[in-house]
Each structure stands twice: as C-alpha cells, then as structure tokens.
Amino acid sequence: MKTIVITGYKPMEMGIFKYDDPKIDFIKKTIMKKLVSLLEEGLEWVLISAQMGVEIWAGQAVLDLQKDYDVHLGVLPPFENQHERWPEAWKEAYEELTMVADFYQPIYNSGYEGPFQFKAKDKFLVAHSQGCLVLFDEETKGSPEYFLKEAENQRQTKEYPVLYITPLDLEETVEEIRMSDSDYFNQ
C-alpha cells in the first residue's frame, strides 16, 4: 500500500475530555508503531480528514515520523472551517496540521451544508487510498462505523485492506512504555 487513510474515534467516544490527556501519548505511539511497519513495506502517503481525536493524533504522529521517514501527510476535511466550533486547543492543532501538511484540500469548498458531506468525504478517501488503519473496538460502537461501511463497500469490488488498532494494541503500548521505564521495577 502506497496510500492509506487513518481514522478512528473522536476523543469523547474514548472518554478523553482534555486536550492534553496522558492517554493520548499511548494512542500516538501505537499509531506510530503501526505506521513504521507500513512505511517499511512502502507506504508513502497518509490521508486524514483531521477530525478531532484519532485523526488529529495520527496527523501529529506522521509529522513526528517525517523526521526519520519519507512519508507525506494529506489533509482532506469534508468542508471548509470544519474546526470553527471546536475548543481552542483542538483548533490550534487542526490549523497547524493544515499549514504543514504536504497536501491540504477540503472535499467541499464551502462550509457545512449537511451530513452528506461526511459521507462524500468517506467515499473520496476510500477511493483515493489502497487501504486504511482504523482505531476501533467491535464492542464500542461509534463514528468510525460510517467510514468502515464505505471501506466494506470498496472491498466488494477490489482489494482494500482494513487494518485495526485495537484495545489490545493500546494495552501493549502501555506495557512496553512501562517496561522501558527504569523506575517501573523499583516501585
């Protein structure tokens, strides 16, 4: 896969209510771990719509990886000013991503007009990628389900790998970080 989409839950769906919640570091590190293996297999582009939560964190993870890997970030929000009603910290993160992304273009060159824009965004992202990475738990329904339906539609006509970040992946990252902390065993 040369191009993938990354998506997942919004922060509230994961019980994250503060922009600087420490759980976010574990999520970003897990995303980076998954991306490194894909980069070593030839990944070149990561596409996001830069929604609050997993997509913003994925964009930030890609920017961190750009220091060591030749990977490009494409930000394709469903419409202009997607972030205008967001809390300030999220607005700043969104604006930073859109400024430093290798490619930025809203799917609709207008403001919010209706839910159809989100569906069109999912169709566009799936059509312009060879697979996706989704932070999702089968037992916790939420916003990623809409994207996954579109990915499943794509799989009816051509190969479209759907890779997951699961709660187990997140737990493994937490444990790896704990084990690498020299103070962990001295407690």
UniProtKB/TrEMBL annotation:
InterPro entries: YspA (IPR010697). NCBIfam families: PRK13660.1. The lineage of its organism: Bacteria, Bacillati, Bacillota, Bacilli, Bacillales. PANTHER family: UPF0398 PROTEIN SPR0331 (PTHR38440:SF1), UPF0398 PROTEIN YPSA (PTHR38440). This is DUF1273 domain-containing protein.
